[in-house]
Amino acid sequence: MRVTVVGAGIVGLATADALVRRGHDVMVLDAVRPMGARSAGASRIFRLAHGDPALVAAADEARGAWAEWSRRAGRELVGTEGAVVSGPKAPAWADAMAAAGAEHTLGDPPAALLGTAEGPVLVDPAGGAVDLAGAGRLLLEALRPHLRPGRVVDLDELDADAVVVTAGAGTPDLVAPLGVDVPAALRHHVRFSFRPRAAPADVPPAHIDGVAGPQLTSTYQHRTPEGTWAVGGHLVDEDAGSTTTADHTLDEVRARSRAAVSAHVAERLPELDPEPVGELACAPAVVDDDGVATARVGKVYVLWGGNLAKFAPLLGERLAEAVHTDGVVHPIGTPTDVSDHGR
């Protein structure tokens, strides 16, 4: 079967890789460059911790798929340092992990945690930092003969037996003519990297902190493959009275984020030099909660959602299997209502 994958981010590449292994004739198109846009940057946080037991179970399944990618790469692509969640979500997420039978604790912060955290905190021992750039290199090397530059405007112009759309910010416009409603409003977001003042004896866990502050509603941090620390925060948008930055320019968000995150590092993370040494900007959908949504319209398969990188190898397998069997994508989590818009 001839399959075109539109979008060469981590999910698109995972899907193409799984399709090639199933024997299909695959072409991957990307408007800019592979592993750009929402898949740019060296790292992400992997976690089992979610607010939905079904998402916890899916993340656990994805952890096994990451292990297979690590075997192919010849090195670990997901760290073993664990992840910590603090703030209002911690108890509810602990309940979801308990319902899914996932190992966790809810109590005092671990000694290795970088900075301070208000308890109780949820400790996810299966979490850690993902070497996203390393995973991208693994897939790009395997898919080199299948990659083509190209901006797709009309899906009907693609000469293929099946089309998979994993185009990130480009997805809403591409699939709107099919009657698939994907959230189109975007917000700018910038995370920064900081150098540690000294190498820690043990790698501290990745940390997601939902404690609100005067400038940031929540923060996250984790070690990158380069040995720096990635720290990001979600801005309080005083103008709109909400937490979205959709109505602000990237330069405005970059300046506000740099000041707010640097202040957070100076106050809460004294182990880091508060002067950023790098930054990564992206534009996720305004609706950016955990979750995956899919749709099928005839030969076109569509996938979108929030915080997808940790699920990438599992999403690739499920999309590829749906194409391979002429079926629909198996749902991931209860928010994932799979829509079959017609065959």
TrEMBL record:
Its EC number is 1.-.-.-. Its cofactor is FAD. GO terms for molecular function: oxidoreductase activity. InterPro entries: FAD-dep_OxRdtase (IPR006076), FAD/NAD-bd_sf (IPR036188), MTOX (IPR045170). Transmembrane segments: none annotated. It is an enzyme of class 1 (oxidoreductase). Keywords: FAD, Flavoprotein, Oxidoreductase. Residues 2-321 form the FAD dependent oxidoreductase domain. Gene3D superfamilies: D-Amino Acid Oxidase, subunit A, domain 2, FAD/NAD(P)-binding domain. This is NAD(P)/FAD-dependent oxidoreductase. It comes from Actinomycetospora atypica. The lineage of its organism: Bacteria, Bacillati, Actinomycetota, Actinomycetes, Pseudonocardiales.
